[in-house]
Amino acid sequence: MPFTPVRGLEIGFVVFMLIMLIVALMQGEMFDASVAAAGVFCGLIPMLIERFFKFEFDTALKIAYILFLFASQYLGSIVGLYGNGWWDIFLHVLSGVFLSFLAIDFLHRLDTETRLELPTRFVLIYILGLSMAGAALWELYEFTSDIVLNTTMQANGNIDTMTDLVAGTLGGLLTATYGAFQHRKERYPEKKEAKS
User: What b/e readout covers 183-194, taking b as 16+ CB neighbours within 10 angstroms?
Assistant: First the structure.
């Protein structure tokens, strides 16, 4: 893959989180170290997928992903904005939106004929399902971090987990509804023209 400004942003985030990891380890801050390590890993994911599977994510999607990681992992966890309460819920809604747009990006990689054969209900369920699965995986990460590293990512236990899952699902549902609506317009363009 050629070096682009977006690739520079991705590499810059990974290097920044690697520096945060080293600093946190030197200071004995295991929570910050676990978040920074997750940041390095998460920051590498798009680059590794693009390299090994030979396809490229949409530029806007990659920028949104890095900004989300920065907002959640650095600003939220390391800086401490999660202490505001609403920050966590806001980011879980945004993660549902982001994961839904990722699902839409995957759908658009299908050839047009195959994509247009998909029923609109299936598209809605697929997009929502991917965002909900992503929310569940994140909660597994939080749970594992709490058990293995003795962190408090799930401070209120089940209440925190369920609030996060509901927030991610709401963000996913909003975007899945939008994606299904767009799919329906693309699938049945004659209905739009007939009303004109």
Answer: bbeeeeeeeeee
Amino acid identity for residue 107 in this structure: L
Give the 3-state secondary structure of residue 4.
Answer: coil
Q: Which residues contact 165 (CB under 8 A, 6 or more apart)?
A: 92, 132, 135, 136, 139
Would you state the structure tokens that stand for residue 96, as one six-digit string?
């549902």
Residue 99, judged by CB atoms within 10 A of its CB (0-12, 13-18, 19+), counts as buried
How far apart (Å, rounded) are the C-alpha atoms in residues 115 and 98?
Answer: 21
**Pair 54, 135 in one domain:** no
Segment 136-175, tens digit of pLDDT: 998 998 889 888 988 777 777 788 899 999 999 999 999 9
Same-domain check for residues 98 and 116? yes
Of 10, 63, 62, 80, the residue nearest 41 (C-alpha): 10
Where in the chain does DSSP place strands (E)?
A: none
Within 10 A of 196 (CB to CB), how many other CB atoms are there?
4
Domain boundary pick from 29, 52, 83 = 83
pTM: 0.74
Please identify, among 39, 60, 83, the residue that sits at the C-terminal boundary of a domain.
83
Domain carrying residue 66: 1-83
